[in-house]
Amino acid sequence: MYLTSDEYNLITGRPGTEATEQRIQFACELFNKRINLNQELEELDLTELTEMQRQNVKRWIAYMVSYLYDNKDIATGVVRSISLGKFSPKMDGAKPTTDTTERREAIW
Predict the structure, then answer these.
(1) Most exposed among 6, 23, 83, 99, judged by the fewest C-beta atoms under 10 Å?
(2) Cα–Cα distance, 105 to 108 (Å, whole number)
(3) 32, 43 in Cβ contact below 8 A?
(4) pLDDT band per the 50, 70, 90 thresholds, residue 14
(5) pLDDT at 87
(6) Distance from chain centroid for Cα 64
(7) Is the pLDDT of residue 56 over 50?
(8) Burial level of 8, CB count in 10 A (0-12/13-18/19+)?
(9) First vs last C-alpha separation in the chain
(10) What is the mean pLDDT of residues 15-30?
(11) 34-43, pLDDT tens digit by residue?
(12) Digit-coded pLDDT (tens) for 72-100
């Protein structure tokens, strides 16, 4: 994990009790996904970063923990929407293809 509850208190000025191990771990997972790391396989090595980079990582994690605390551990609004453009997945025999000329509604 990238942050302790004491560091959380120093960075945010909020009680360290808000920074539970579960919230810190969840915030770290969100951070790793944001920088395209697979949490199960790797974690950012903070010792390879400059002091400013380390502090920025800790600040990001700390404010995500405070966001999670304020929103009852639900990361709503983290990803509001995603746009993939217009395309329609089709199956052509055994191969999936995309047809960009047609628009179809799909329920996944």
Answers:
(1) 83
(2) 10
(3) yes
(4) very high
(5) 53
(6) 9
(7) yes
(8) buried
(9) 34
(10) 93
(11) 887 765 667 7
(12) 888 776 555 555 556 555 555 555 544 44
Buried b (16+ CB within 10 A) or exposed e, 54-91: eeebbebbbebbbbbbeeeeeeeeeeeeeeeeeeeeee
Q: What is the pLDDT of residue 35?
A: 83
3-state DSSP of the chain: CCCCHHHHHHHHCCCHHHCCHHHHHHHHHHHHHHCCCCCCCCCCCHHHCCHHHHHHHHHHHHHHHHHHHHCCCCCCCCCCCCCCCCCEEEEECCEEEEECCCCCCCCC
Residue 16 CA to residue 61 CA, distance in Å, equals 13
User: What is the residue type of 65?
Assistant: V
